[in-house]
Amino acid sequence: MGPLQFITTSARFILRGGKAYWIWVGVLLALIVWGVLGYVEQLQLGLIVTNMRDQVSWAFYIGNFTFLVGVAAAAVVLVIPAYVYHWGPIKEVAILGEILAISAIVMCLLFVVVDMGRPDRGWHLIPFIGHMNFPSSVLAWDVLVLNLYLVLNLLIVTHILYRGMQGRHYNQSFVVPLVLFSIPAAVGIHTVTAFIYAGLPGRPYWNASILAPRFLCSAFCSGPAVMVVLFQILQRTTNIAIKDAAIRKIAELMAYAMFLNLFLLGAELFKEYYSATEHLIHFQYLFAGVHGHHALVPYAWAFVICGITAFLLFLFPATRRNVVTLNLGCLLIYASCYIEKGMGLVMPAFTPDTLGEIYEYTPTIHELRIGAGIFSIGFLVFTMLCKIAIPILTGEFAAARTVTAASKAQPWAAEAASATTH
Amino acid sequence: MVRRPADDTCSDAGGLDAEETPEGVSRRDFLTAIGLAAAGVLAGCSPEAREAFFRKHFRELSSSEVETRIANLRSDYVKRFGEDVTISATPARPGVVFGYALDLSRCIGCRRCVYACVKENNQSRDPQIQWIRVLEMEKEKGIDFETANPYYNPERVPDPDHFYVPVACQQCRTPQCTQVCPVGATWQEPDGIVVIDYDWCIGCRYCMAACPYGARHFNWGEPTLPQAEFNPNLHVLGNRPRPRGVVEKCTFCIQRTRAGRYPACVEICPVGARKFGNLIDPESEVSRILREKRVFVLKSELKTEPKFYYFYGV
Amino acid sequence: MSDIRPPQQPETENGEDGGGTEEEFSLARSNALIPLLIMSAVTVLAIVLVIVRAKPVIPPEGSVANKAFGPADFPLVFAKEEALAAPGEPTGSAPMVFPVPAPPFSEGIFPCMQCHEGIPPNPERRTLEAMHSDIVLHHDEEHRWCLDCHDTNNRDQLHLANGAPVPFTESYKLCGQCHGTQYRDWRSGIHGKRTGYWDGSKRYFLCVHCHNPHSPRFAALQPLPPPVRPQFLRPAAAAVAASGDASGARHEQEEGNGAQAR
Known about the structure:
- The complex is a heterotrimer.
- Chain A is mainly alpha-helical.
- Chain A has 18 helices and no strands.
- Chain A has one domain (3-420): Formate dehydrogenase/DMSO reductase fold.
- Helices cover 73% and strands 0% of the residues of chain A.
- The radius of gyration of chain A is 23 Å and the shape is globular.
- Chain B is of the alpha+beta class.
- Chain B has a domain at 98-311: Alpha-Beta Plaits, CATH 3.30.70.
- Chain B has 10 helices and 12 strands.
- In chain B, strands 10-2-12-11 form a 4-stranded mixed β-sheet.
- In chain C, strand 1 (157-159) and strand 2 form a beta hairpin.
- Chains in contact: A-B, A-C, B-C.
- The interface between A and B is large, with 56 and 64 residues.
């Protein structure tokens, strides 16, 4: 089968589904339309429809971007057991992690685009065609690395699914090196994203060497949390045989990541509170409020408490196994990391700003709309890719195709039939 | 002038993925179709939009391209503001590095510099952009940004318990902003002024996060500039009216200083707190101040090495 | 990635947790996921509602907090354009003589000798009552009085401590006697208002163009308004739409231009 048949078959997969599927897709499409309309308004009026101002020039969009880069990097939590340790239960589902990575990177790129003041000048970022300030600007590095990671995962997933649809095994010498390369690439994307912040001496809240390790640890908590919940949903809604051992192992790995996350947070808090220099004011704003401004305080304590609770739930094998506490823990750690990387990372750095002014930022309805739209696009991409991947993974497609070929005597059936005997 | 990018800008057709040779649609047919689509989109755009979309980085323009650009800008502004403008692209003069010195013992916080700058540099009136920010600080604390207040509004200044520190772009020798711009839209000119190519900036605001002095400002909305308040003496890298969605900042009044004049803030200051000159010339005011007065810079621990010095004259 | 054949032979797991004797917690048998998802959706919704419920605070009418002032609101400060500086550095023939604008005499007061020609000079220190009573000396008035600067016999000039005459156009020499540091700085151009060309002619002002010689300390003045606070930065149209209070914001914008120019 050629690429066109691949596309048409994929389209058939996507368009085939039960009531729940279509309700889900319908909700997503509605949110996407709502978000796109919000973005159109933002394009018309400018970024002034957000609440970002000179004092807090990065906020909701970039906070989400940072969090989603972490989710994308977390595919490595699946890839390492699958391809380095050749552990079967996870190896079967590693592709789902890569699909999650693709969806997350798509969301990241969209959040960057909606944050730009001049998206019509986006081509300026393309090396050699535009003018990329490489290697000086870490943002330029991030553009390269994120797109590289996206292309990497697209290549792997497309190849596996394409071969799968043809009834052939994927080319190991093509896929395995790429997959192994995606491990440092995943670490790389989040490290480079952390370096975007850590390299700025003018923002002392960010200018810490611990930022990159913190990012990685919270990424390895939040991404797998999504995967654990998604795998359970897929177990329930599709025929795919995801072993519970896989979910348990991921949860175990998350426990280690959560411990490191809390430990690094503790290390930062100690350093700031004990030395008590003027840079402490950012943490004070976050955890206690400053000069009467305390909008972020409930969120800050929420993320700490959620993080500790989630860690305790995941620490003990009993609660890690129990389905209620497992999912509760996933929810809590996801919320904790989302707040920590979103409001807890971007906003306190700008509050107070470089000249000491405090401008309390809260997102506007436009930002929330556009954010909801982008998350919906990500969910839709994930849903569609899973819709294509799962019939191939479960062997449903191979079995069905053999039947169809025999009954309709398609010309390529002979080639495909022989392929399945490999 | 609200332009919807969806309507009149052009975007290249999407990329092509390298797939195995398809049996149904040949690669050549596919490429042809994409190419025709792209050509159709491009042909449908107006020439101004095409020129605006494909415009190169300012530093890569040849001198004739700069001339063309200036001519286009001139006709644009004449249409918008109804009066003739002079747009210069004067390059930096060799042997000149601009420096600035501000006497903190004299500044009374009257903010005339702020508004003179707004007038001279065609800043947006609404949403308001001001390149200079005057911070009121407590005498007891000295230079302390945490207790600084830019919104002071007493009946009379100077307030006896406070002193005033105006802050604008420090024109650092090792600027953070030029280092982090992903597209190289901001750079330091040989005479020390950090400039922005307003046609190249993509509005990512990384430079604003990087600047330790809060000196860079963003056009969040469509900038408005009433016709009556337009200053027609422009420099292409300086005070020409900016479009929406780009960053702007103090350029040491590049349109004035490259013609040998003082910046507007220096000239309006009623108490003579602001001094400007060529750091290389030992007899300039700024060089004298560096020699004879004791200067300091803000946030010196960040090693940005500003060319904007503060001192106490009395 | 395992083979894509249907999984007839499940791969062996690593020996952990006793393999298949573990209790299976597959979600198909538990109904906890749905309530949890509902709970999280409700929480997210609640947070979102809290965020968007917050109404923008509209400051009272006429307050400077959200009015975007510009230089056009202060015509008196910015209207006059300074003429370019007169050319020239001090010439070699007359060192220490700087070209300055005319001294800021009160109207009709100069030349002084048109009145003082016929008045015998009275060098006795006293408070003036007949004329010049409007001048109150706040300039070392404990030790000095008028004729310490103004020449006793020729009121069209000033004099130094050693009696040497100084024309009004060179009054900086007189000020410089006591205020030597400022005089030195003024000569180098680092004291006083600066206009003109940094690489050419600079305008020098007399000391008295800024400092009233009888009361030299600057009076405090009213500052121009502070910048718009960032939360009120929206342009007027958007602010009206956002606040939903059409009359308030628009009224403020309209009356702002006239009322604030002081």
